[in-house]
Specification:
InterPro entries: DUF6459. It comes from Rhodococcus spongiicola. It holds the Pfam family DUF6459. The protein is α+β, with helices and mostly antiparallel strands. The protein has a domain at about 65-170: Nuclear Transport Factor 2, Chain: A (Roll). It contains 3 helices and 4 strands, in the order αααββββ. It is flat.
């Protein structure tokens, strides 16, 4: 017996290949319904009633203006276009804070790995008010067959800018 040779298996692939389209996975449907007697715990499966620690009702009553929604979509779309080098960073300066422009410009210059997956396409944008002059923006964008997240904060008229909205912070995943 030769003890000098050892073989290792390859590490498993945790991410699908960038060019593969995921196949639909059939869901398992149990042939017999699950009865309450088969549960191992007395929990009914429903979430418990939440107690309100702080009152957010005033925040949820405040509506996001259509102007803020349009600005959020425009700013995120413009950001993705600058990252893909389809637009110059100077065009982003009209809607974003200087720190945001610098970050996006450095990402565009570095030629980040996501560019190999294809062009970024903004898919969905949601806007939630924080105050009357600020809102949190979050959404998704795709590159090829992959979906990524993007989040930002927009504020209205912060000093040196015109009285409109401005993109003040950005997070891309």
């Amino acid at each position: 017996m030769n003890a000098g040779h050892r073989f290792l298996s390859r590490a498993p692939q945790f991410e699908p290949p960038a060019n593969a389209i995921p196949a639909a996975v059939p869901r398992h449907v149990p042939s017999t319904p699950i009865s309450s007697t088969s549960r191992r715990s007395p929990h009914s499966g429903r979430s418990p009633q939440r107690s309100a620690v702080h009152d957010d009702s005033a925040l949820h009553d405040e509506k996001v203006t259509p102007e803020a929604r349009r600005f959020a979509e425009l700013a995120l779309r413009l950001t993705l276009e600058v990252m893909d080098r389809r637009r110059v960073p100077a065009q982003l300066r009209a809607v974003a804070a200087p720190a945001v422009v610098d970050v996006v410009q450095s990402i565009a210059r570095s030629g980040h790995a996501g560019n190999r997956l294809g062009t970024a396409t903004l898919e969905r944008v949601r806007v939630r008010p924080v105050r009357s002059d600020a809102a949190e923006v979050f959404g998704t964008y795709t590159r090829g067959h992959r979906v990524f997240a993007i989040a930002a904060r927009i504020e209205r008229g912060n000093g040196a800018r015109l009285p409109g909205w401005a993109l003040t912070s950005l997070r891309i995943a």
